[in-house]
């Protein structure tokens, strides 16, 4: 039976990496471990991982800096943060540097595995992409190559940004509520802050709607949609 993916677990507490590695191997994953930000960058630089499980607090520099450096190097591997910090600003900081999701300690192993599987399902590396292009005006999404263009220019998106844009594009002019977007993009029983949708909509606007005309529309009190101006 083939592995569902290879995961890099990054934490400076050996008992945590041992526990997580054992649980993930039980689920069939191949697992590598790292105990510092520097080691994580070296291992992640090999480009062989399907997901990085990244603790925020590390001995050399924190996990958000690891993620920021990976994204600056063009690494698009999904990142799931592990954090003991429950403040919204800490979570937003992780998402702001290109993270795909976060789990707050303490967490159950079942929840963690569910979130990992959810992220992998919404990336092209797991389960395959549909052989199709989604188009709205000069916005083009190629699900095979996992690329997006606007006005002929390639737009770099994280896995979650890509999934959110695909969700909006695939529903045409229909207005989607936050809960509908959570169900489709974060496809598990989401226990976090639903404002994660607003956060990612703002990220998409900065990348997709830096061109004219703006396509991402907020329908106040209802939700979000992608539409060409009338």
Describe this structure in words.
The chain has 230 residues and is of the alpha/beta class. Helix 3 links the parallel strand 3 (51-55) and strand 4 (79-83). 37% of the residues lie in helices and 20% in strands. Residues 125-131 have low confidence and may be disordered. It has eight helices and eleven strands. The chain is elongated and about 60 Å long. It has helices spanning 14-26, 37-44, 63-72, 88-96, 109-121, 159-170, 178-185, 196-208; strands spanning 6-10, 30-34, 51-55, 79-83, 101-104, 133-136, 139-142, 147-150, 153-155, 216-219, 223-226. The chain has a five-stranded parallel β-sheet, sandwiched between helices. A four-stranded antiparallel β-sheet has the order 6-7-8-9, with helices on one face. The protein starts with 5 loop residues before the first strand and ends with a strand. Helix 2 packs parallel to helix 3 (63-72) and helix 6 packs across helix 8.
């Amino acid at each position: 039976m083939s592995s569902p993916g290879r995961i890099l677990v990054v934490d400076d507490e050996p008992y945590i990496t041992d526990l997580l590695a054992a649980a993930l191997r039980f689920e069939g994953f191949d697992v590598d471990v790292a105990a510092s930000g520097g080691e994580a960058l070296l291992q992640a630089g090999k480009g062989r991982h399907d997901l990085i499980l990244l603790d925020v607090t590390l001995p050399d520099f924190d996990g958000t800096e690891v993620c920021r450096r990976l994204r600056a190097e063009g690494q698009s591997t999904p990142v799931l943060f592990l954090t003991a910090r429950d403040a919204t600003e800490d979570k937003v900081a992780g998402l702001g540097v290109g993270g795909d999701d976060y789990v707050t300690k303490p967490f159950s192993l079942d929840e963690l595995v569910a979130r990992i599987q959810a992220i992998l399902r919404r990336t092209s590396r797991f389960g395959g992409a549909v052989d199709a292009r989604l188009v709205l005006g000069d916005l083009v999404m190629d699900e095979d190559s996992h690329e997006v263009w606007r006005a002929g220019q390639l737009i770099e998106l994280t896995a979650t940004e890509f999934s959110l844009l695909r969700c909006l594009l695939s529903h045409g002019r229909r207005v989607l509520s936050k809960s509908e977007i959570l169900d489709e993009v974060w496809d598990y029983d989401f226990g976090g802050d639903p404002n994660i949708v607003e956060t990612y909509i703002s990220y998409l606007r900065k990348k997709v709607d830096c061109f004219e005309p703006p396509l991402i529309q907020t329908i106040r009190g209802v939700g979000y949609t992608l539409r060409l101006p009338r």
